[in-house]
């Protein structure tokens, strides 16, 4: 029976001309079957020829421990990487198909809009095709989102599986060891050196761990092996199973996305050819049938690789089994080998054990939940009993208090019924007491009025006293400040007087300068004839020189308007500058010869007198 694995290996290395997804899947499963058979058949046979007398572990225990160790190493070195490559490839296909679907839907909408503008399609057909394209895009986006979530979960579970595998190997190599007959330590690595192992999957590792536990429970290990590593192996098993589930989900999303691409391509092809709606729908139905996707993509000239289309296309099992590239003998050998492996319980027993373990786990979980709920129910019943007893106690206490209240009320009624004589005495006492209280109240009222007057007088005196204290404090505080203030005011007054005297000096100097300027101007403007006739016009010069400008606010006179303006701005600052300008401008110089002419400047008056009164 040891030739069966070699038949599977022969099937594995057969020269297949086509490497389809089904062939790869059958190869992987065949290799898994070889591993299980090797675990049950090859390893025990090889161990029987190996020198295991050096370890205290029994032969069967050593076989299963070595199998677990080799499976863990394969998970660490190969299986997780193989699953990662498959998942990344499938996710890449989903991403590519999504991009192509978006392009096809966009192109379809453009074609439909152009055809609708040219009246090539009916409005109802255009609306139907657009809605179908949108639905295809939404469905494909959902597949992409689901594949993205599965891919994220796969990466996370792979990291956790690698970490759990590493810890399990460390604990297994540290704790599971024995002693040789000479007393030297023999590790599990030495014992398992050279032993073969199948490809590691979550189910194979789980089955090996369960078989080891069965052996350990039967007590045939011949020595004590600590079980710290078993928890890490359980975690690695769980992570590997979740890895495989994520892989299956991503690989399932790839053909679904490809079907969406086929539908979108069929719609776009029909819109390009201006086919009827019925023909477009028929082409779309044929596109999603088995074997029609690749031909449709070839007709649409999509930029998809042959590997992606073939890897996700469906090939019926009878076409794969009886293909021209295989012989009937090869198919028969494969079927016989598979049947014999199933008969040897390599796969069936594993599936049964997996299902048994699954239902056992579910049953234990349900039992734990039942126990928890029973405990909670018991606690609720106890709480209910307690609250009921509390309610009865409170009711009894309330009834007792009601009785006590009635008794007290009865006694109070009896005490509140006095005799007639007592009533008369009480009435007289009350009246007398009321008169006394009224008299006392009047006395207190008069006393209160007197106290109020006294308090007002006292408050007035206190207020005056406080004002006097504030005045004293103020003058004490300002005793030195008043002196400084007086000195400062005197100093500012002196500075102001000095400034006034300086301004008067400057004004006098400015008047003298202006007179000199006018004198020099007149001398420069004189003609030689005028110089000759100077003795004749002497009275004119005297007349013009004797003209003075009088200030409208004081009796001072000035020889020029500038001096008068400076005087008014300096001596009469209360007047605005505009008022000073108006006052100066309103001053007119009248001709002294009685002609009635007036001028605004001495120069103009002088020219008038020289021209008109020579």
TrEMBL record:
InterPro entries: Trypano_invariant_glycop (IPR021057), Znf_C2H2_type (IPR013087). The keyword Nucleus does not apply. Keywords: Coiled coil, Metal-binding, Zinc, Zinc-finger. Signal peptide: none annotated. The keyword DNA repair does not apply. Residues 549-577, 589-614 form the C2H2-type domain. Residues 98-182, 427-502 form a coiled coil. The lineage of its organism: Eukaryota, Discoba, Euglenozoa, Kinetoplastea, Metakinetoplastina. GO terms for molecular function: zinc ion binding. This is WGS project CAEQ00000000 data, annotated contig 2404. It comes from the Eukaryota.
